[in-house]
Amino acid sequence: MVKAIKVMLIPNNVQKTKMFQYAGASRFAYNWALAREIVNHEKGGKFLSDAELRKEFTKLRHSDECAWLLSISNNVTKQAIKDACTAYKNFFKGLQKFPRFKSRKRSIPKFYQDNVKIRFSNTHIKFEGFSSSRKANKQKMNWVRLAEHERIPTDAKYMNPRISFDGLNWWISVCVEFPDCRETLNDDGIGIDLGIKDLAVCSDGTKYKNINKSQKLKRLEKQKRRLQRSISRSYEKNSLQIKSQG
Prior knowledge:
The chain is an alpha+beta fold. It contains five helices and ten strands; from the N terminus they run E-H-H-H-E-E-E-H-E-E-E-E-E-E-H. Helix 1 (about 15-40) packs parallel to helix 3 (about 75-90) and helix 2 (about 50-60) packs antiparallel against helix 3.
């Protein structure tokens, strides 16, 4: 069973800056891949696979013009390229509209995290590549605080982790695989005998008591009758007083 969970993040200022950089790199890679697909199609070429585009993008990352991408986790841009290729192919399959280029002003800042390398504790989420230093104080920057504790299990299988910004807060949404705990039903029948002493007796030996025969209910019924008599006497007494005054 797969369950989708969404939790708000509470990053510090340095982490917020890094998240916007990751979202910007994801947008850049998506637009680049979509543009390559469009140009290639206009020239009469076949669909470019995301594997081909990723190889080409790796060379672009190491160019002087795009050296800033080297500080971004490679998995962020790889998934953005894959998303662009999927959206472009789905248009020709008739599954969605023609994909649009992502705008810095209008598009939602978001990016992907590798589902194998992502880590969760009860209170934090560990991002990939926020800090490459092995020093303990530098490694702390990789751990972003969760607004809700223990919402995401720490020892589960994660799928498609996505981080997004709604204009006010950052959020992590992830699908988590849980063991299927639904009971397996069978076709075995069961007989039920309704009685007086016992409410019901099943053919498998299970008995359900008749609450009307319990001592607690008998005690409550006795208490109810006593209160009813007391109220009745009070009502009769008040009626006599009203008549005498009249």
